[in-house]
Amino acid sequence: MTKSEALYERAVKCIPGGVNSPVRAFGSVGETPRFIEKANGAWIYDADGNAYLDFIGSWGPMILGHNHPEVLESVMEAVKGGLSFGAATEREVLMAELICDMVPSIGMVRMVNSGTEAVMSAIRTARGFTGRNKIVKFTGCYHGHTDAMLVKAGSGVMTQGIPDSAGVPAGCTQDTLSAAYNNLSSVEVLFEENKNEIAAVIVEPVAANMGVVPPAKGFLEGLRKLCTREGALLIFDEVITGFRLAPDGAQGYFGIQPDLTTFGKIIGGGMPVGAYGGSKEIMSMVAPVGPVYQAGTLSGNPVAMAAGLAQLTMLKENPRIYQELNAMGDWFYSEIETILREAGAPWQVNHTGSLGCVFFTEQPVVDYASAKTSDVGKYRDYFKYMLHHGIYLAPSQFEAMFLSAAHKKEELEEMLDVLRGYMHR
Ligand code: KE4
Question: How far apart are the C-alpha atoms of 384 and 399, rounded to whole Å?
């Protein structure tokens, strides 16, 4: 029995599914989850000492690679002063000033502890600001596990959202409407059917939770125009894309200004951090200034701020990281496609910058319906082969690959060699 197997055997006895987040259970790929002991740069090491080239990076936070010395040093420095005070600290001011400086649409920002909390709070703020209740989301986009966002795929178009989880009362999703990603007319219909009732449209500017699905040309611009015309707020959920695609996130990368933005992952440098922000007018709705209540014991935690500040500051001071990372992604994902085509495989490769994924389907993947045509059995086979050859990919077809500034070209070439081996096995 490996140490991971032994740990998993113990874990399932005291943690639901043996994990603290479902995707980590490797449920859809039929492998024992690897219990990771340490990480460095682009590599992670499991309890049995196996090394893996890491294409998850903690699901996005580790854009500079694991254990970046400047992040560690900043954390160690903060720890010496204490872990948490439940009081205002200078680091929170520095973090808010930095985010407002890097992202032009953000005039004010509130720190929270997860992407879920950021989305939950942004939705409440949008409802408070507009006095409206309904929220439009896109089937296949994931915005954390706040009740209102857990609606059945495809439900809600002109009807009330149907809960997609036990324990979510119908009342929590009745105001959530679902549209189809990259399909502006599906949003138009909802605005026609719910005149003056839609508080906000929330969207992943690059969908990365149904696999990676980039926005079609004109999609984000169309959402901007629709929301402006209808008096609804446009919320960009940049928990994944924020500070990944550009110093000012997907909104900078695509040149579209949302009304509210949610962040997570990268802004925490690996520590539990989320944030939501927007114009001063909108954010002045938030307590204690305004009537929208939101709070958090560990929000703006000094140690978490130290990690996030170190990472964000490096990103801000070295914007070349983005050109290099995006160019590496363009090269890497096109190499993957070449290997597939040379092997006569019709699989699809989608990417935007350093975010990408392989869909095991023959049709272009532009939304949830087309993503779901993927053969998850083929994905499982691919995942297992790559894992056993030291390549750590998302244990689900409907997730993303994340490159980091720590990935060296020769290491990516290694992965491409393993992929060639898989395609010619
Ligand atoms: P958290 O609450 O997990 O910090 O963030 C929720 C969230 C919000 N918005 C987007 C666009 C997200 O991708 C996420 C969380 N992403 C997943 C990865 N697909 C986290 C991994 C997990 O659930 O364990």
Answer: 16
Question: Catalytic: which of 46, 175, 237, 259?
Answer: 237
Domains and CATH numbers, the chain: 3-67+319-423 (3.90.1150.10), 69-317 (3.40.640.10)
| pTM metric for this prediction | 0.98
pLDDT tens for the chain, 425 residues long, are: 999 999 999 999 999 999 999 999 999 999 999 999 999 999 999 999 999 999 999 999 999 999 999 999 999 999 999 999 999 999 999 999 999 999 999 999 999 999 999 999 999 999 999 999 999 999 999 999 999 999 988 665 566 788 999 999 999 999 999 999 999 999 999 999 999 999 999 999 999 999 999 999 999 999 999 999 999 999 999 999 999 999 999 999 999 999 999 999 999 999 999 999 999 999 999 999 999 999 999 999 999 999 999 999 999 999 999 999 999 999 999 999 999 999 999 999 999 999 999 999 999 999 999 999 999 999 999 999 999 999 999 999 999 999 999 999 999 999 999 999 999 99
Listed residue (59, 54, 23) closest to 239, CA to CA: 59
- Would you say the CB of residue 123 lies under 6 angstroms from ligand 1? no
**Helical spans, DSSP H, in 215-290:** 219-230, 249-254, 280-283
Residue 397: closest CA among 35, 23, 52, 58: 23
Instruction: List the catalytic residue out of 8, 46, 54, 265.
Output: 265
